[in-house]
Specification:
It contains 6 helices and 57 strands. The strands form 5 sheets. It has a 29-stranded mixed β-sheet that branches. Strands 25-26-27-30-29 form a 5-stranded mixed beta barrel. The chain has a 5-stranded mixed barrel with strand order 31-32-33-36-35. It is mainly beta. Among the domains are: 123 residues, no CATH class; 64 residues, Nucleic acid-binding proteins (OB fold (Dihydrolipoamide Acetyltransferase, E2P), Beta Barrel); 125 residues, Copper binding periplasmic protein CusF (OB fold (Dihydrolipoamide Acetyltransferase, E2P)); 59 residues, Copper binding periplasmic protein CusF (OB fold (Dihydrolipoamide Acetyltransferase, E2P), Beta Barrel), CATH 2.40.50. β37 and β38 form a beta hairpin.
Length: 794
């Protein structure tokens, strides 16, 4: 084989040096001579420049052909494209050549490149090709092929008219939504069985399992399909999405189980859609393609009731004790339980308890904020919430913690909490700093600061006087620094990390934890008894090649998994550090002036579906020794006192934002040898978030050019030009309003107001008008005796 390769290389070099082809192949058999001639032709071939417009059109055609293959089954031999025929002929020809196999396949690649160039050139020169322009309306998607000029520039598209359909009953303000599937499938895989009778499972995170006809649960690790009669479930810190053939979606959160009962998700041009599933437990979110055909069905059953969607976005929650709640954000859902049906429109929710009828729909309120009071009445995000016997709390939230609250509004505007979930533990009075150990014992001295330790303090082994450590803990009421953790930083082979996640696979040299590959070696300490599906905490270092090496892996029992690591900032859209992606929220504390390439420290929490959310992103560009970072409430500004700690403010101190007494601030201070804390920066903890933000849904009762008044909020909403209104604002139209309460207690509007529901008024002819006619004044009319209770399927 070596001789053949050398001989071929010699021939190529002779060609490159300008020797005529005829002389180079004079002593070769005919077949080998033909190959060398092809190589010479390839060298002389001028590869055409790519035309982006034509390439886009060709890509669209390729995707359409692929989709047609998915929906139409396998392609017969008679229908094979010409490229497949040529490929078969080339393979047969190469098999007959008396040359090594490796060389044959290399030459095959050359031939494919030549064929691609020829096909590209021919397609690029075809007249009349155009780019698909998609025009969306509220009822259908129109695809128009628009001619392109010779330069590939799209000419002005023709005007397209589309009639807007409306239901003859209360309907939602349906946003423009394209019909048809929106799932994107990889081209270079085996074709999926994607059709009306199946749904594609993707967006797979954590532990996702499917039960087949034989009753066996099988892990789903890559995009696949599910059909009627099968079950799907997710584990801790996990999620998955079902993509139906008509474009509807269902997202499963953690610890959720559903069964597919009926499935025939036909597209509008093919007939009625039928999607029926049962949700046994957990949380799901649904985005249902709007249909106005009178026969389509999208139904989510639960052990206590059912909900039929009418072109809708909605959430379904089923608890362990079989409480069911339907929360509608767009459109409407007909909810049935114990023989009674209620219609839940956008912005409302309804709850079903076992063997009871659904509650009357109530307007929804949801958001995140700090807990200021607990008990029969909670204070969250600066607003009070009543409680009830069926209220759900997750994570045992305490005063100072950040929580997410979901609830409803009573007719008098008072708020009732239905579920409160811990998002982040209180950060006030918590500190972190790095320094050198100067003394150890019942009390430690680090960076000239006295640190108290107790039996609950986690201390790394091998720490000695003179070692460089990171200390984190609580600032007690008297100013004492109580250590929660002391981590050795000396001689680490990389940047430290710690995070919690669900175990997906266990190998001899690597584990997969919440989608992240973690290397293990003989020095990794692993707690016994860990199996796939367990939630664990992993500590280790990020090496120079950005691989993550575990130092120890232990079971995690905390209700709020966290992560913490140091690394290079790879990007901010989306955020990624050390190769690990995460999200930020309005309450994330981010150092100003960060740039890609900076060394940063990231701390955060992991939501129930496995999503990582950063709580703090701190720059490590400056020396970190003897610098303490903490958060607290400003109680004095002359002198500066934060949570009882007196701070030294100098001319070099940066005071960011408009800080007032009572505000929560983030402080970065240098620990001085005399024990004082010299402030480097002090800024509002999260100026745009304050105590918290809530979104309410409520009908409009009055409005003019300067204000909007809603039923469930007793303060007029000012229209000062900064607030945009999306939709047609009228009396009785339901809007969503995002509200945030600042540290000063003032509630402000922080985003756009959206019209999510507009009732259609139906006026009944009372029979007294002349000739049986009536003046409906632009509203929809119907005659007495018409079926006002009938509702079309969506």
């Amino acid at each position: 084989m070596k001789q053949s390769e050398d001989y071929l290389q010699e021939l190529v070099e002779r060609l490159e040096n300008g020797e005529p082809v005829a002389e180079c192949v004079a002593s070769l058999p005919a077949q080998e001579a033909e190959i060398v001639a092809l190589i010479d032709a390839m060298h002389k071939l001028s590869f055409p420049e790519e035309n982006e417009a034509v390439a886009a059109a060709q890509e669209a055609k390729l995707l359409a052909a692929t989709q047609a293959q998915f929906s139409g089954g396998r392609v017969g031999e008679d229908d094979l494209p010409i490229t497949a025929v040529i490929r078969t002929q080339i393979q047969t020809w190469l098999d007959q050549l008396p040359i090594p196999r490796e060389l044959a396949y290399g030459l095959a690649a050359v031939l494919v490149m030549i064929l691609f160039a020829v096909v590209w050139t021919s397609l690029s020169n075809r007249p009349g090709d155009g780019l698909p322009i998609q025009v969306e309306t509220s009822t259908e998607t129109i695809v128009e092929v628009v001619p392109t000029s010779a330069a590939g520039v799209v000419d002005d598209p023709p005007a397209i008219d589309a009639e807007q359909l409306a239901e003859q009953a209360e309907v939602a303000a349906i946003p423009p939504t394209p019909q048809g599937p929106t799932v994107y499938l990889p081209l270079m895989t085996s074709p999926l069985d994607f059709r009306a009778e199946t749904a594609v499972i993707d967006n797979i995170q954590g532990i996702v399992e499917m039960q087949t006809d034989d009753g066996v649960w099988t892990a789903v690790n890559q995009t696949t399909t599910i059909a009627a009669g099968q079950l799907l479930r997710t584990g801790n810190l996990s999620q998955a999405t079902l993509n139906f053939y008509d474009g509807s979606l269902a997202n499963l959160s953690a610890n959720t189980e559903i069964s597919i009962d009926e499935l025939n998700a036909l597209r509008p041009e093919n007939g009625f859609r039928t999607v029926v599933m049962t949700q046994w437990t957990g949380d799901t979110d649904h985005a249902v393609q709007f249909r106005n055909d009178g026969g389509s069905r999208y139904e989510v059953n639960t052990p206590t009731g059912s909900g039929i969607a009418r072109g809708t976005k909605f959430h379904v929650m089923v608890t362990a004790d079989l409480l069911t709640r339907y929360i509608v954000t767009e459109g409407r859902v007909d909810v049935t339980g114990a023989g009674r049906m209620v219609t839940v429109t956008a912005g409302k929710l309804s709850t079903i308890l076992p063997e009871t009828v659904p509650t009357e729909p109530a307007f929804n309120i949801a958001g995140e904020g700090e807990v200021e009071a607990t008990g029969p009445v909670w204070t969250i995000a600066g607003q009070t919430f009543q409680t009830h016997e069926h209220m759900i709390t997750v994570g045992n939230p305490q005063i100072g913690d950040l929580v997410r609250v979901n609830g409803h509004l009573l007719s008098d505007g008072s708020r009732v909490a239905d579920r409160i979930v811990l998002v982040r533990r209180a950060i006030a009075n918590r500190f972190t700093f790095t320094g050198t150990v100067e003394a150890m014992g019942a009390a430690w001295t680090v960076a000239s600061q006295t640190i108290t330790v107790n039996s609950g303090t986690a201390v790394d082994a091998d720490i000695v006087i003179g070692a460089n450590v990171q200390v984190s803990g609580m600032i007690l009421a008297d100013g004492t620094l109580q250590a929660k953790q002391i981590v050795l930083l000396d001689e680490l082979p990389g940047h430290p990390f710690e995070f919690s996640g669900v175990v997906q696979s266990i190998g001899s040299d690597s584990w997969t934890v919440s989608g992240h590959t973690i290397a293990v070696d003989v020095f990794t300490g692993i707690e016994t008894g860990i199996v796939v599906g367990d939630v664990v905490t992993v500590r280790g270092v990020i090496l120079a090649n950005e691989s993550w090496l575990a130092g120890n892996i232990v079971l995690k029992f905390d209700a709020l998994p966290t992560f913490e690591f140091t690394g290079t900032l790879n990007g901010m859209a989306p955020w990624q550090v050390g190769g690990l992606s995460f999200e930020i929220k309005p309450w994330t504390i981010v150092d100003p002036n960060l740039a890609v390439g900076d060394l940063v420290s990231v701390k955060g929490i992991i939501l129930s579906d496995g999503t990582r959310v950063a709580t703090n992103i701190v720059s490590l560009a400056e020396p970190i020794n003897n610098v303490i970072v903490f958060a607290g409430t400003v109680t004095s500004m002359n002198p500066w006192i934060v949570d009882g700690l007196q701070l030294v403010v100098t001319d070099d101190t940066q005071i960011i934002d408009n800080i007032t007494i009572g505000a929560m601030v983030s402080v970065r201070a240098r620990l001085m040898p005399d024990g004082t804390w010299s402030v480097l920066t002090v800024r509002l903890l999260y100026p745009d978030f304050g105590q918290g933000c809530l979104t309410i849904s409520s009908p409009v009762v009055a409005f003019d050019a300067g204000m909007i008044r809603v039923k469930h909020w007793h303060v007029d909403i000012k229209r000062d030009g900064r607030i945009h209104i999306k939709g047609n604002l009228k009396i009785d139209h339901v809007i969503t309003v995002p509200l945030c309460t600042g540290w000063d207690g003032v509630t402000i509007i922080v985003g756009d107001i959206t019209v999510i529901y507009q009732p259609v008024v139906i006026i009944i002819n009372d029979g007294n008008s002349n000739g049986g006619s009536s003046d409906c004044r632009g509203s929809k009319c119907s005659n007495r005796g018409s079926n006002r209770g009938s509702k079309k399927s969506g």
